[in-house]
Every structure is written in structure tokens, then in C-alpha cells.
# Entry
Amino acid sequence: MKRILFTLILAFLTTGLAEARHITPNEKQAREMFNHAYALVMGKQGCQLSYDVNIVGIYKTTGTIWYKGKKSKFIESRYASWNNGSIFYKVDKKKRTVELYNPNSPKRDKYASKFTFSPGSYEYHISLEGGAYVIRMDALKDAKSSIKHAKVYLDKQTRYPLGVKVKVAFFWTTVKISHFKPGGINDAVFEFPRSQFAGYKFTDKRNE
# Structure
């Protein structure tokens, strides 16, 4: 459940919007703001951000993520991954294992394929709360998405992402985002530092 929810949250920061039906001026603005956040996170310039996950007080973790095009990297206390565009390395520090996958393989994350997020299946609404814009997303009645409600928080001045809340089943999961940095990401960040994991068990799953 821990990694399922984090996978869902990331979907909101890595998916562009598609026009589907007649929308109100408020919803149009909400969509445009969401698209802007998407461009900041997933644009060619790349980005870096830190996250703090809280699943209703049951599970908490922190980490840092880097994105640039099809490349990515994330580091937290137990897990880490490097994707240089050719190979996806998944590290479990507790088990001392490293698994190699093709970057586009659904097997690299068994939870990702179980959840889908279709931007056109939601109603959007934007409001201003203190120093943040809040984009509320509510699934349409005929939507098949397992994510029924979500909120995306953007800084009022910079429009940088501040956090995401996702409702799955009967509870909300909160991710706070900090130290957001768009651009200036060197490709060397995404190369797997093999020397740091000497003694780990390596398993190549690229042909599975």
C-alpha cells in the first residue's frame, strides 16, 4: 500500500491534460494551471523536488526525485532508482538488491499497471487558500479511475507545486513538496553509481 499510493500521487505530476467536454471559466483556469505545473515538472529542462509522504499517520517517508524527459531518479531511506533512459535500476537497501529493467516495462513497478489516471475523466475547480492555489479534481460519474478525488497545491507567486492530496477508498494521502527546482539538471544525475552498491545482489530482468 505504501508504494501504491506514491505511484498514484506521481501520476498527477506526470500527466498532461486533454480537452474532453464543455468547461466553465473556472475549470478552464484550473486546467491551464495544472498544465503549467506539468510543464514545470516534466518539461525538457528537467526538475528536482523533495517530498514528504503521510498516509493517514500510518506510514511516513521522505525523499528526493529528479526528472528530465524520459530519465528519472529517486532516493529515500530504503528504496532508490535510476533511469538513464536505457536501463531502469531499482534498489532495495534493506535487502541489498539491485534489479535491472527496461525503462518502459510495467514489471519494474507492479503497482503502476493497476492504476490508471485519465485527465479527461475529471471536473476541475480552482480556488485560492492563503498563499496557494488549490486545484480540486473530482471524477465524473462514469469515470473508471480508482482515484476519485484529488487536490493539487501550487504556490501563489511561483506556481511551483507545493503538494498533492489523493483520496483512495475512504482516506486521504498527503504529499508535501519542497525545494522544487526547475531546470539545471545534469544528465550525469541519472547514471547508476554502481560502485556505491558493491556487495549487492544484481538481477537482470530486462528479458522477462
